[in-house]
Structures are given as structure tokens and as C-alpha cells.
Amino acid sequence: MAFYEKASRAFYNYPSLSKLLVVVTVSGGAGGGLLAYSDSKPHNVENAVISPEAEKKKKKVVVLGTGWAGTSFLKNLKNPDYDVHVISPRNYFAFTPLLPSVTVGTVEARSICEPIRKMVKKKDVSVSYWEAECLSIDPVSKTVKCRSTQNADLNGKADFSVDYDYLVIAMGARSNTFNTPGVEENAHFLKEVEDAQKIRQSIIDCFEKAALPTLSDEERKRILHFVVVGGGPTGVEFAAELHDFVNEDLVRLYPKVKDLVKITLLEATDHILNMFDKRITAFAEDKFHRDGINLQTGSMVVNVTNKEISTKALKNGGTISSMPYGMLVWSTGIGARPVIMDFMKQINQGKRRALGTDEWLRVEGTGEIYALGDCATIVQRKVMEDIADIFKKADKDNSGTLTVKEMQELVDDILERYPQIELYLKNRKLKSIVDLMKEAKGDATKESIELNIEEFRSALSQADSQMKNLPATAQVAAQQGTYLADCFNRMEECEKNPEGPIRIRGEGQHRFKPFRYRHFGQFAPLGGEQAAAQLPGDWVSIGHSTQWLWYSVYASKQVSWRTRALVVGDWSRRFMFGRDSSRI
């Protein structure tokens, strides 16, 4: 026993032996055994000496939002030196590109949702989640004020404040009504899972009402008139899904009213799917006409009541007309949330439509605040604003002229800092800035080219015309979240060894390379098991095979094997049994 007591004291006094396991077999009549195991903590844990490394305080990162940008950031954050707090009224991630499918039961709502707590629980990073809504952001005191979304009585403790070292704003955006009267009160939106579920209920409501024997045919026509406002990808896909739902499923269940159903798509511009190739636009418009979808372009909604929509023709003298309707879905773009608008006013960005950030996603006018996704837009520096600084940085011998050799030493940094120059060269079919310099000097040989500041300014004067804002898509938001997480993972490393371009208006280098969006293409499902795709390299694909490509891509992009299996299962169920039209 004396040996066992000494061994026990050794375990406690020397934590390095904590994983030592001693098994001793005691001989005797009955035989026996003893298992000894020690924890790594000494007896007096409270008074234990902690190394300076252990005392290093973790930086607190507050993430606002659990959409594409916020979730992508959380999934890719791997540095355990951060204490992460996620605040969002939505405790799940939703695969929003499939929301139009949820509205008609092609895919169930639960199939596209993944709990945030489940997504982050296995990470080495300390992550906590609070179901609350952000009310305000104070960049001076570095705090955010929040309110719990729980309806239960919290004894006056629903409001709370959270301080931060780094703030990541990924709150998304809200539907933009353009202050059109009656839209907020009478229209459905399609931004959240709850919106899709309400639309699904409303569709069934309309058919059940129209089936009642007490209504006139005129009233039935009004109730079964479905209007979609907005000819972008979401509006077009919903109109196509609704058409398939009606013609493949509902007409069998409501045969007496099938000839009274009408679907109208309103678009203020001349064509739908303006961001796509013209071949896709033409095919989509032709298909909608063949399917009997009433497509009205050049029509702007000016007023909405509970039974009637007023539109203004943007041509033909601006004639105003009205149409009765039963259900209205509004999908015309996005706008900033109220809390973002208030924050923009605090940091002198009140005139912008979204939070302005630099190329590293850091909010302009702040310190350690980052914004990504639909709530933000990157404000790319203009070449003409920095042309004098670029010239000065390249002119190392201070001769007042730039040679080809001097420009070649700086060209990679310039192209990385100002991507619009590369696009400008591509459109001009020039291989490099050197070719642009040669063009500016006429027939001069490459070795003899020298440009003064005015000639250099003239050569790049049109480069800023290539600047474009990034689209507010899930693809952009996800890439931004991945990029920012990578920056946070290597923050300390890049402080010591910067990897970004040189500072044009200062000394040294930027810590990181600026964010660059890579476009992998976009889809537009058009109904009838047909879709259109515009892929990199200006490759356009239209038809049934593209729909199967859409299935494979959207299945592979699910955030978990659970949601992937559920989505594929829903598609299979729909092929075999049709869509579910019951009221649940």
C-alpha cells in the first residue's frame, strides 16, 4: 500500500505523468487488480501557476448573421486564438437558392436548413450562439446592442450588450419595396424560409377558396390570378415552379377551376434575366409565352391594394392600368436593413445603399469592423484617384519619367491593387501595361519608352470605366466568408510577413492580398425540367441536360450530408408521387 500511496502522490505532484496508467495484479487466493489513473490538474487548481502562453487573452469576434457569408466564415475559421460569438435571430443556415422550390413543395423546408449549433460544435474554435437580433452598433465603445427573439418573459433581461475586438457584419438584406404604397401590407416576399412557407400556404388557400360553391367565376378568376413582380432569377424561377405546380399537380385535384388560373410576371425593364446572356433571355421569354405565363415587361408597379395592382407603362406615354389579383409575390431587389442604415449614418456613409468596405472587406471609416454579403459592397479604389501616387512609387530614380523596366518592377502590385486595369487591357486586347505604354508613345521601341506623368495619366484614363459592383448573390457572399476566415486564420503570421501588394499611398505592404471574386457561373431554372446556365468562358447551356446539371450542382453544394440526402430524397419523391398539396 505504501507503493500505491507514493504513486498516487506522484501523479498529483507531477502532472506530466497524468496519462500514465498503472495496472497491478495482486496474487493471492482470490486474485485481484488495481487500476490507477491521474487527472492532469493538481489538487489546488485555483492556485495553480499558469504559463504566460495560457494567460494570452483570446480576441473576441462577434459575428452578426447566419446566412451565406456568416456561415462560410464560421465553417472556415480554424484559428483557436479567437473567442467567437454568433448573434442571429435565425439559429440555422438556409440554402436560399432552393427557396422557390420550397414554395410549391418540390423541396421541404427542413431539407434546406442546417442548425448553426450543429455546424460549429465540432470545431476547435470556441464558438457560442445567441438567438437575438442586433439593434445597434457602437464603433466607438466597440459594442453591439441586442434583443432576444424569444417571446417568453425574460424578467426584463431581453436586451443585452456584447463587446468585441473584431466585428463581422453578415446580416444580409431585406426586400426592397422602393416605397411603393401597399406592398408591405399586401405582398409576399421570398427572402427567408418562413416566407416560402407562407407562400405555399397562400397558394393552397387560393385554390381552396376558388373551389367554394358560393363564389362567382369572376371572383374565382381574381383569386386564382398569381402575380410575380420582378424578372430576376428569383422571380423567374418562382413563376416557373408555380406553373409546374399548377399544371402537374393542382389541376388534377381542382379540375373545376383549372381553366381559371393565370400567372403574370411583371418586369420594369425591357427584358427578364437582364444579368444573363441575351440567348438565355430570349429562350426564357419565348418559353414563358409558350407555357401561357403572362409576361409584361416595361411595367412598373405604382400601387397595391388587397385586391388590385396598379401599373405604369414605361412606354406609350406612361399609361396607368389596374389588374385584380389573388396573390402577389414581390421580388425586385434588396435594400439595407434599418440597423445597417443607422450604422451607416454614424460612420458618414448615409448616402450609400450598402455598407462600403475596402478590398479587404473592412468597413470604411472604422477599425476592426468587417462587412460581407448582401449588406455590404466593395468600394474599389480608382486608378485616377491614385495616379500621381502610382507614378511616384514606380519612378524610383525620381527622374520624372517612367521606363519599361521601372513599370515591370511594380506591375504585379498595380494589377493586384487595381483589377480594373487588367479588365481594361483584356478589352483592349493588350497583353500588359507595357503594351499600353508603347501604344501611348506611338512607334517607339520597347527599350526607349519613357512616359511623363501626363502621358501616364492619359494611358490609364479609361481604366476605371471597367469597375463594376459585385452581384448580391450567395456565391459572392460564400467566397467573401471563406476569404475573411483565411485572413483571420493567418492574422498573426501575416502581421510579421505581409503577403499583399505594396502600399501605393504609404510604406510597406498590405497584410493580405485583396479579395477577388471568382465567378463559377449561374443557373436559371425555367420549369418543365428545363434550365439555362451561363458558365465561365461565356459558355451557355439551355435545356433538359442543363436541368440535370442544376440538380447535381445544387445537391453537391449542400452544407451537410443530411441536407444533401433530404434534398435528393425530396426530388425523388416528387418524380414518383408529385408535390404535396396538403395544408400543414
TrEMBL record:
Membrane topology: Peripheral membrane protein
SUPFAM superfamilies per UniProt: EF-hand, FAD/NAD(P)-binding domain
Cell compartment(s), UniProt: Mitochondrion inner membrane; Peroxisome
EC number, as in UniProt: 1.6.5.9
Recorded superkingdom: Eukaryota
Keyword Mitochondrion in annotation: yes
Substrates-to-products reaction catalysed: a quinone + NADH + H(+) = a quinol + NAD(+); a ubiquinone + NADH + H(+) = a ubiquinol + NAD(+)
GO cellular component, as recorded: mitochondrial inner membrane; peroxisome
Record keywords, A-Z: Calcium, FAD, Flavoprotein, Membrane, Metal-binding, Mitochondrion, Mitochondrion inner membrane, NAD, NADP, Oxidoreductase, Peroxisome, Transit peptide
Cofactor list: FAD
GO molecular function: calcium ion binding; NADH dehydrogenase (quinone) (non-electrogenic) activity
Ranges where the EF-hand domain occurs: 382-417
Keyword Flavoprotein: yes
Protein family (similarity comment): Belongs to the NADH dehydrogenase family.
Protein name: NADH:ubiquinone reductase (non-electrogenic)
Source organism (scientific name): Chenopodium quinoa
Gene name of the encoded protein: LOC110693524
